[in-house]
Design goal:
The structure is a single chain. The protein contains one helix and eleven strands. The chain has 204 residues and is mostly beta strands. The chain has a single domain, classed as Porin. A hairpin with a 4-residue loop joins strand 6 and strand 7. The radius of gyration is 24 Å and the shape is elongated.
């Protein structure tokens, strides 16, 4: 009788012990992923020191990026992490012309390094906020009648903030959707970027 009672008490405790590591490992450790979605750039009237345009430039485009990061559990439901990403837009050149003169800005690629804080609202779902550094490599071309074209390449730098949620499918696969806002208004430029991206990632 005593043996049976001991087994009945031991088995549930053993099951909890076996399951606990799997639950604790959700949204922890290194990960890599890919995501894509909608991106909108709003630029102007200042696009560079001493360069001003008559009206704002704006462009809607598709955007894709690769990312990698690491999440760490600081409490039962709280995660802190870092993430690096490199992205590129599709057909995202911004241009303005009055028939004789024109200006165009072509974002070639972007790089970002952000931190994020997450909270588990369920065993498999995490809400998070992010913020950090964002930089874009851009080619600027200005054409004026009677003069040679002006071309320049450089980086516009600023900050990124955003938030979203992730959902885990099993031990390694996760999906996410997020909204991000970037202020790239450095070097005299007024530049806002809004993005809504969805992606998948693999958690090691």
């Amino acid at each position: 009788m005593n043996t049976r009672i001991s087994m009945m008490l031991f088995l549930p405790a053993a099951m909890i012990t076996v399951n606990a590591p799997a639950q604790a490992e959700n949204f922890e450790g290194p990960f890599v992923g890919v995501e894509g979605g909608y991106s909108r750039d709003d630029i102007g009237p200042d696009i560079e020191d001493d360069i001003e345009i008559s009206e704002d430039l704006d462009r809607d485009a598709a955007y894709f990026q690769l990312f990698a990061g690491y999440d760490h559990a600081v409490a039962d439901k709280v995660r802190l992490g870092v993430e690096a990403a490199i992205g590129i837009g599709a057909d995202d050149e911004l241009s303005l012309s009055d028939g004789t003169d024109s200006v165009s800005l072509d974002p070639e690629f972007s790089f970002e390094l952000t931190g994020r804080a997450g909270y588990l609202v369920g065993e498999n779902t995490m809400l998070y906020a992010r913020g950090g550094y964002h930089s874009s490599r851009v080619e600027l071309t200005i054409t004026e009648e009677g003069t040679a074209d002006f071309q320049d390449k450089g980086y516009v730098e600023g900050f990124l903030v955003g938030g979203g949620f992730e959902h885990a499918f099993g031990d390694n696969l996760r999906s996410r959707i997020e909204y991000r806002y970037s202020d790239l208004g450095s070097n005299g430029a007024n530049w806002d970027r809004h993005q809504v991206l969805a992606g998948v990632l693999y958690n090691f």
